[in-house]
Amino acid sequence: RQEEAKAVIKFLSKDQINLDQNTNLEVLNVKQANYFEIFRGKWLKLTSLQTIVNFTLAFGYWGLYTWIPTLLMEKGLSMSQSLGFLALTSIMQIPGYMAASHLTARFGRKKILFLFVTGAAISGFLFAFSSNMVELYAFNFLLSFFNQGAWAVWNTWFGEVYPTNVRGAGYSFGAASQRWANTFAPSIIGFVIGMGWTFGATVSFIEAFVVVTMITILFIPETEGKILE
């Protein structure tokens, strides 16, 4: 189905790649990898890095937003006011996604993800030590914007870091580490709240995981504009 394949390539490249009739496309016969392979040789470092990013970024999100109504009650809000606060600040997720999607196409995955994760970390620490309601709303608006923008970039970049034969194994293992974070974060944060940690201490502890994300992504190879294997 050579002609169909060439037509698809032409369409996906927006007419930038136009293959002539003498070009013969082939599908390489590659060995499908398993979970053991992504922890061997050159893949060990990448698997370790992407697992850390997946875990810490998810921990930072679910650790905060699972407990934010309870945390806001420490600031004097009722449960209904806390849920309203959460709903309102979630609106900023939409422009966060849109801005990240636009910027990553221009400047690359790594730069924009680093920018958005840094913005999320700074906003998170400012939110932790907000002194009034205006600051609570303002910094959580920023946190919501940068946090969701970061997820938009990471979900794109993460799908490109492995070559075809190990992509399924690598991606699914990383996605599983997000589920681990989704499981552990609410329990751990609930535990520290039960120990009597203050609002600022609890949120700062959560944002420390985002700082780990920020540092780790510096060591993952850029894929923007690269031909994927």
Key words describing this protein structure:
229 residues; mainly alpha; Growth Hormone, Chain: A; 9 helices; 0% strand
Report what the structure shows:
- The chain is mostly helical and 229 residues long.
- It has two domains: 1-30, no CATH class; 33-219, Up-down Bundle (Growth Hormone, Chain: A).
- 70% of the residues lie in helices and 0% in strands.
- The chain has nine helices and no strands.
- The chain has helices at residues 2-12, 43-65, 68-73, 79-89, 93-107, 109-128, 133-158, 164-194, 199-216.
- α5 packs across α7, α6 (109-128) runs antiparallel to α7 (133-158) and α6 (109-128) packs antiparallel against α9 (199-216).
- The longest helix has 31 residues, at 164-194.
- The chain is elongated.
- The two termini are 21 Å apart.
- The model has no long low-confidence stretch (mean pLDDT 91).
Mean pLDDT: 91
- What is the C-level CATH assignment of the largest domain? Mainly Alpha
Beta-sheet strand percentage? under 5%
Structural class comes to: mainly alpha
Biggest β-sheet strands, sense, barrel: none
Report a brief summary of the structure.
This protein has nine helices and no strands.
How are the elements arranged and paired?
Layout: H1 2-12, H2 43-65, H3 68-73, H4 79-89, H5 93-107, H6 109-128, H7 133-158, H8 164-194, H9 199-216
